[in-house]
Amino acid sequence: MVLFSEPQSLKLIFISMINFKKNSGFTLIETLVAMTLGVLIMVMVMTTIVPSIKYVRSIKNTEKLHSEIVFFIDNLTYWIKQSNNLDADQSNLTINFLDKPALEIKEDSGKIKVNGENFIDERINITNLNFTKISDSVRVNLSMEINGSHENISITTTISKRN
Questions:
Q1: Which of 44, 111, 118, 129 has its CA 20 to 30 A from that of 25?
Q2: What is the pLDDT of residues 54-107, one digit of tens each?
Q3: How far, in Å, are 3, 41, 66 from residue 142 at the CA level?
Q4: 9 phi and psi angles, rounded to 5 deg
Q5: Is the pLDDT reported for residue 18 higher than 80?
Q6: Which helix (H) or strand (E) holds 68?
Q7: Pair 142, 72: CB distance under 8 Å
Q8: Do residues 17 and 23 touch, judged by C-beta distance below 8 A?
C-alpha cells in the first residue's frame, strides 16, 4: 500500500506545513498593539465607573439619613400628640402619658436614646439635637451624619400636642 504515489505530493504537504507554522499566531507588535488598546479601553471604562460608584454610594447614604430622620420625627410626632405633659430642656425631652410610662429622649455620645436604648441605626451620628418647649409644642433641631462620610442632613420642626 502506497501512501503517496508521487514524491511531489509529499513535497507539497511539507511546504504547506512550513507555511502554516509561519502564519499561525501573532507577532510581537500585534500583541503589544492589542494589549495597549485593551489597557486604554479599561482606563476609559474605569474613569467612568469609579465616579459613578461614588455617586451611588453618596445617594444611598443621603437616602439612609433621610429615612432615619423621617422615622425619628414620625415617632416623635406620634408620642407628642399622644402625650399628657411635656418637659423639655436643651438636650432632653420627657414625654408623659396618662396610661403608659414616660419616655425620655436625649442625645448621648452621638446617638438618640429613648429610655436609654439606641433609637436609630448605629452608623448614624447625631451632631445636634435640641428641644425647646413652646407652650404645648416642642421645637426640634436635629442634625445627623453617616459615620465615615461627608453626607449630613438637618431639620428644624415644631410638633404640637393634640388639643
A1: 44
A2: 999 999 999 999 999 999 999 999 999 999 999 998 889 999 999 999 999 999
A3: 94, 47, 12
A4: -65, -35
A5: no
A6: helix 28-82
A7: yes
A8: no
